[in-house]
Amino acid sequence: MSKTLQHPAVARALSLGLLLTFWIAAAELTADASVLPQPWMLLGPFAEALASGALPYHLGMTLWRVVCAFVPAMAIGAALGFLMGRVPAVDQWLDPWLVVFLNLPALVLIVLCYLWIGLNEAAAILAVVLNKVPNVATILREGARALDPSLGAMAEVYRMRPLARLRHVILPQLAPFIAGAARSGIAVIWKIVLVVEFLGRSSGIGFQIHFYFQLFDVAMVLVYALSFIGVMLLVEALILQPSERRVRRWRTA
Amino acid sequence: MIKVDVRRKAFGEEEVLRDIQFEVDVGETIAIVGASGIGKSTLLRLIAGIDHDFDGKIRRPEKIGMVFQEPVLLPWRSVAENLTLVHPELGSEAALSGLERVGILDKARLFPGQLSLGQQRRLALARAFAGRPDLLVMDEPYVSLDPATAEEMLALTEMLIAETGPAVILVTHSDVEAQRLARRHLRLHGRPATITSELATGSASVFSGVHHDRA
Ligand SMILES: Nc1ncnc2c1ncn2[C@@H]1O[C@H](COP(=O)(O)OP(=O)(O)OP(=O)(O)O)[C@@H](O)[C@H]1O
Ligand SMILES: [Mg+2]
């Protein structure tokens, strides 16, 4: 019994079930579907939104923005963090900037981007990227500092080519840090994307939530939010976790 | 030919090496001996071109192999890949025959972490010889092995040196190893360390005192 309880999948399902129970109990206590509807009361609106094509469209737009922001944020953040971890002079100069940007509220950056660039897609993406880069850089800086100098010496003696060095010596050491940054990155980015859409886009989950917020339609707000959480759980289970397992294979072999 | 001329090597304020000059001919093996912490590994890093921060000049060939104090393998790549990624010009067949010569052919597909320390050292040895180096630098390659395994590794190294014919610079604590592999022994002594004696064992002539030849 306790053995099955410890199985990760079982524990996961049970813990999610517990959350659902709390929801049901809370809805029961509220006894007002316009404030907090029961979970099963969302199924109808969900099916409707799905059939009308509105849900897939806005889901797709948000997902697209998440990807557009995630890729450059990871690439720029990783490059910056790596440089900062390897070159002390770069670290000295960029560290204060990092502190400033880390402590700048996401909302401020978003509003400023919209004000300066205009209410367009580029401003939206840029706002998200700027919000995420400092985070990725901080994590990757730790990774670059932790690089094993003896492996570097080995690569040097045997004159390994720069690209081979990057792929087979450096990246495997950075992999746990990259995975960590990607994990927390995805989670943070989609939340910021929602705020960006809420404030100044006419598509996406954030826009829809804004729309139904004005109608005080709690059920539809929940439908859109939960749909996206569902998608992100799928991404986690189908892409992030398997790729992490593959990269870690040598540890468990 | 390898020509070492180190005037001064310091870590911050701490001067570790001073005035070390010697030459090694093609096909010659020399041993560097001295107390722990004297600066042997530091000297080898200068010779191998890992550390460029010193006063002096070192002439070394292009192709260098090095066996470090630890095996220093890529733990996330297979045993065979540890040869082919470091020596891309090496075909997979040559890599496998390299593994066969050090006796770990059956481990080719495993990860280094799945090997015993002795086997990891064999892989490090195979990697050092795989590039057919003109200079082989070895930093206590047999430490923390049991006597039987150390003896096996020693015999293996002798065989590989005979086959490949590189110049060899070996750091060791063991007189037995030094006697077996090297005709010339340089002893580091003092603080900062310098060469206090150069012995040629066997039939060759015996030097005493510092051997300077600033050409
Ligand atoms: N990166 C470094 N920074 C500062 N000091 C160092 C550094 N590397 C080595 N040293 C110092 O240089 C001296 C020589 O070290 P080295 O590793 O060359 O000794 P060794 O002769 O190889 O000793 P062992 O036989 O124990 O391996 C030591 O006092 C050590 O503390
Ligand atoms: Mg040493």
TrEMBL record, chain B:
Under the heading PROSITE patterns, the entry gives: ABC_TRANSPORTER_1 (PS00211), ABC_TRANSPORTER_2 (PS50893)
Any one Gene Ontology MF annotation carried by this entry is: ATP hydrolysis activity
User: What are the UniProt keywords, alphabetically?
Assistant: ATP-binding, Nucleotide-binding, Plasmid, Transport
The answer, when asked if Transport is one of the entry's keywords, is: yes
Presence of the UniProt keyword Zinc in the record: no
Family listed? Belongs to the ABC transporter superfamily.
Return the protein name: Aliphatic sulfonates transporter ATP-binding protein SsuB
Instruction: Identify the species of origin.
Output: Sinorhizobium americanum
